[in-house]
Structures are given as C-alpha cells and as structure tokens.
DNA sequence: GGCACCTATCAGCCAGTGTTGACAGGCAAG
DNA sequence: CTTGCCTGTCAACACTGGCTGATAGGTGCC
C-alpha cells in the first residue's frame, strides 16, 4: 500500500504489532500443556470446524510468529470467535489485560470442557452461552466424532464421565 | 465467499457489515453542512496528510457505499485515527453508540475547530490532547496553510497539490 | 536399521484489497 | 454557450493477504 518496508516495523505507526503475542497468549491459555498441544495445522482445523471460517495452519503460524500481521476483519472475527474473546482484544490494551486475567483463571481449572466454556463465556449472556454449547454438541453428533481426542480440547477423559 | 451483493449481506457470518454506515456517520458528523463537505477525493487527501497513512478517494467511496468492507487492520487504524474514534468503534456496537452521542453533541457546536477537537478528545488524556493539538498546529504552520479555517476544516489552495 | 506420522518452515500461487486513471454529469465564471 | 473545476462512479491494474504444496527434522513403532 504505502510501499513501506514490511519487515522491521517502523515505530512511526502504532499498528497492531502485538497481534502475534496476543495470539500466542491465547494459544498458551487454551493449551497449557505443551506436550498435548496440537500443531498449527491441527489447531487451524479445529478453528475451521468450530467457527466455520477458513484458516490455514501455515497462516496461523505466520501470524503467531509475526511474519504477517495486517489481517482483514474477517480473519480477526474468526480468531476472536474461536478463542472466545471479543474482537477488541486484539486492538485495545485494556481489554486484552482484562481478558488475560480471565485466561489465567481459566487455565487453573483442570477440566478441559470447563476451561473452554469459561473462555467463551466472557461477555456473553447466559442464553448465548447455552445456545453456543448446544450448537457445538449438535455439530459433534452430526459429524459422528469417534471417541478420539482423549485429552485434547473438547472431549475429556476417555470412557469416563461424559454426560 | 465474496458473493458481494452490496446490499444484502449473507447472514452466515456476523461480519462487519455496518462499516459503511459507521463511516457515513463519521463523515456526516465531521461535515454537518452538505454544501461545505469536500468530496471523497479531497477527504482522502485530508486523511493522508493528517494521519500520514495512504488511502485513495475511490477506495473511501467504495467503503462508504458498501462495495468493499473487509478492510485490513492498517486501513482501519488510519480511519480511526483521522476521525478521532477508537478502532473499536467499527467493531463494538456499544462503543459506537457512545461515540455517536458525542458526535451529535459535537455537531451542535458551530466552531469547526472545537468540533474537531471534541471528536478527537474522546478517550484521551488531557496531555495527549494537548500534544495532539500542538502537533496539528505545527503541521499547519509547516504546510503554510491559509490563516486557519473559516468554516471548513482545512483550506487548500486551489490548483496546488503536494506530493 | 527402516517406515509412518507428526511437526515447523519455506516457496510459490491465487483472490481480493486498495491503487491509479478516466469517464460522465453538475455548477460557476467567462 | 463554452470553458473549467469538482463531484461521484467505474474499469483496469498492482500488491499483498491468505492459501496450497513441498521440504526438512523429530519421534515412535516395526
């Protein structure tokens, strides 16, 4: 656009340079255990089926490593929706801090489902939360997800509780 | 997924569909008098010299008429900076409403300078406001702009375009 | 040893964002 | 009426956002 350099970020414009850090924070919050964390490809696939929006693993990596950062609003919306944060999270410092506190709290919880719900709960009404949960459940049933994902995200321990 | 119809937006994704309206609101707020309002080209030039970011008049029109709406963060930042609103204005309904109230109030004022300052004042500390004002004044002096605005915002010498 | 399946990273491609340039219509000055 | 400026609008172009595919390295299972 401006023909500005694209590698080193000139401090001239207060652009969204912290997007990479924000993204990494979110990922770390959702998957506190490094071993259990899926790669960017798997994570992107998860985002795709959860939000319906398209995103590639490679691009996720590019964003997380700061190689690309001038995303479009559509992508921003998809990311925000998946991680359960308001889109302003990527723009406003205060909002980011507030949400980050919530994230730390959620990380403390052991149960993956509760953690996930807690993340998505921020700023939503009870009705919205309920509707979301129902939709996700429906989607899973519809896709006939096998008893995989033993300790991954959405499903918890294998052959155990589960409503 | 770019089935851009212009008017009817596929409700599949709660995208930023109101960007055109928001933009028009801002323009109308800044230039309440239709007669005195500069065209998109002039307005774009104004934005360019004020914020330093690049934007074309045609593109401004496309955004205002809803032909394009999936802007990048960089463009969003430039627009927000010029109009003196926080970037969340384009994302968050509540913020937009709150700021819109401020805009109406500011519109009531006759003096263009006060109106301008009022717009930019929202959410800023007194120090920031002061610094901004100083910078703008310096810029004006530097560009040898005519002795301040009469009722327009900035007066440009006819037939002269820099850069 | 080997193979199969991961992962992160890179190079190249396509689509759409954002550009420049030009056209038609309105309004004031000559 | 003609000339000139300014407006909104469009079409053709360029650049980069975002994707697909391939490569290199790691770990487990045979």
Automatic annotation (TrEMBL), chains A, B:
- The HTH cro/C1-type domain sits at 68-90
Q: Which InterPro entries match?
A: Cro/C1-type_HTH, Lambda_DNA-bd_dom_sf
Protein name, entry field? HTH cro/C1-type domain-containing protein
Origin organism of this chain? Streptomyces violascens
